Amino acid sequence: MGSTRANRFGLAVIGLILLLGGLTAAVRGAAFVPRHLGAAHVPVTGRFVRAFADAHLWFWIALAAFSVAIALLALRWLGAQARRPAPRTIRLEPDTRHGATTLSTRAVTDAIEDDLNAGPYVRRATAGVTGNRARPHLLLNVTVDPDTDPADARSSIYEAIARARRTLENDDQPATVRLRVRE
Amino acid sequence: MTGMDAARTGDLRPPSRRAARRAVRRSFGPRRVLPSVVTAALLAAAAIILAAEVIGTLVGRSPGVLLPVVDLARLGRSLRWDDVLVLAVASLLAALGLLLLLLALRPGRLRAIPLRSEDPNVVLGIARADLRRYVARAAQSVDGVDRARVRVRRHSVRVRAVSPLHDVAGLTEQVHGAVGERLSALAPLHRPHVRVTVRHRED
User: Fold this and answer.
1) Residue A84 domain-assigned (yes or no)
2) Where, by residue number, does the polypeptide cross the bilayer (chain A) (predicted)?
3) Looking at the domain covering B114-200, what would its CATH class be?
4) B69-82 pLDDT, tens per residue?
5) What are the start-end ranges of the E strands in chain B?
6) Which of residues 108-127 of B touch A (CB under 8 A)?
7) Same domain, yes or no, for A18 and A73?
């Protein structure tokens, strides 16, 4: 879920650069403040710019390095859109100095699913884990019949989460629950 | 508990509304995948082409393999800042930038309707379509109601029920009660306004 913030940040930065760059160019073309931005009726790449680029090799090297850096960042941003695979194990104690006890994620999610499916109020439940093995986040999809009282569904969900928390030895274990309603 | 731990967990007061809202956003907020994929892909493509062209020329390959460098250079010399084309491209880029900025800064629509949770670490939600099914069933469970169509909006739930009965006045009350009861049990974080209309129709 870390990609949500990255997306917001990336879009804001690119948007701001495009907005400011586009506005600056348009304002120069419209000759609103020629004193600060330069004259409007001159070539886009003026003589000074051309001479500078021709005379300085380091300009091209810097441009190449900058492009490579931007390309790498953009590819990383793109890669962050793929959902990260769930951790295969969950670590119990956050303090690893005395050795770490791990549980298989599958065992934890299976237990939650069995727990919910065994009760009378839930038609189908699936459980998953996101985050990493030190700080897992539980994801539950709980499908109920439209005739089920939401209060009953809710209490069996809380019970299942409470049991998972005891297994994980974490009273604050976070969870996201999506309630679904199917005939 | 040591002093440091106490300081760190010092905010043991009931979870603030702000924290709850942030947790809901984290779970059900928009991820902005589509604009991000498009922007990142275009940016990567542009940067790779530019880097390849510049590096290629630096190591002695003939320029203009990936980018029409000669034409671009001629365009840069011949176009002036006050040309219509330059103004149009500049405005287009600014508009695009504004669009991306709005996409990033606006909070966006939640992917699920958040439900009240007594546990600050548990976020509960229900998709619009599922809430619709749930409410529709509650309305249909009232005796005398044949069918019920439900529309769920951000702040309101609209129920249109059809009944074969002639006197639908009392029925509206009953449907309203059934829907209200279902919503109370479901307990959405922001309780929607409920409107019910029952029409008489014989099939």
Assistant:
1) no
2) 57-78
3) alpha beta
4) 889 989 998 999 98
5) 113-115, 122-126, 147-152, 156-163, 193-200
6) 112, 115, 118-119, 121-127
7) yes
